[in-house]
Amino acid sequence: MRENQIRSIWRGGGVVVNGWLAIPSSFSAEVMAHQGWDSLTVDLQHGVTDYASAVAMFTAISTTATVPIARVPWLDPGIIMKVLDAGAYGVICPMVNSREDAEKFVHACRYAPDGGRSFGPIRALLYGGPEYPTKANETIVTLAMIETRQALDRLDEILSVKGLDAVYIGPADLSLSLGCTPTFDDVDKPVAEAIDMVLAKAKEHGVVPCIHNGTPETALKRIERGFRLVTISSDARLMAAGAQQVTSKMRSGLKAATAADSTY
Question: How far apart are CA 72 and CA 168, in angstroms?
C-alpha cells in the first residue's frame, strides 16, 4: 500500500504544506505538484472542477510524491466514495455542523466494519496498490470543515467522533457565519477568538487542526500557534498574482520609457 505522507508527517510531529487546485486542468495540476507541496487539494466545491477533470488531476499529481486530496461539494456519501475510488488519499468535507454530520462523513470514507463505503476502488487500486482494500481505512485522511456558528456550538460533539482525523477551518465562511467580513488572514476579533477555540479543542481531543490561509506569512504564524496542515492560496490566485506582478512591472517600465522618450 502506498504510504500516505500526510499521516507520516503528522506522526513525525511535522506540518503539512497543502496547495489548492481550482483550475480544471491536468497540466496545471501536474505543474503545481512538481513545486514541492506535501499535498494538493482538488476543489470540487468552489473550484470549476467536475469529476472527470478531478480524476485527470489526481492522475497528474501522481507523477510526484505529492498527496492528492479532494474537497467535495457537500456532505454527500456518493461523491465522497467516488473521489476515494478515483484515488484521493484525503477528503475535506464542507459544512460539518453536528456529530451526526461528522459520523455520516466518516462512515462514507471507511469500508465495513468501520463504515459503509461501497467497494469499487477503480483507480485507487492503481494509485494505492493491491493492499488498498485492506489498508484504505487506516490510510485515508478525513478532514471536517468547521465554518459555521452551529459547528462551533457543537464542536466537542464533532471532535469526539471516532475516525475523524482532522478539522479544517474555513476562515471566510466562518467569518460570514459570525457576521464578519469574509477573509482568510486578517480576520475580525470574533473570528480570531473562534479559531483559537477550535485550535484548543482540537488539541484537547487529539484531532489535527488545519486551516486555510491567503499568504505564507499568515500560514507560518498559524503553524507557530499549533496548526498542523496549512493551505496557502490556490493555483488560480497564484497565477493571477504572478501575472499581475509581471504586467505591473511592464506598465511601470513602459511609462518610464515613454517619459524618457518625450525628453528628446
Answer: 13
What is the residue extent of each domain of the chain?
Answer: 5-233
Active-site option among 46, 107, 205, 212: 46
- Domain spanning 5-233: which superfamily? Phosphoenolpyruvate-binding domains (3.20.20.60)
**Are 207 and 159 a contacting pair, CB within 8 Å?**
yes
Amino acid of residue 256? A
- Taking the model in full, what pTM does it have? 0.95
CB within 8 Å of 125: residues ≥ 6 apart: 132, 133
In this predicted model, what pLDDT tens digit does every residue of 192-239 receive, in sequence order?
999 999 999 999 999 999 999 999 999 999 999 999 999 999 999 999
Q: Is 34 noted as a catalytic residue in this protein?
A: no
Tell me the C-alpha distance between 142 and 203, whole Å.
16
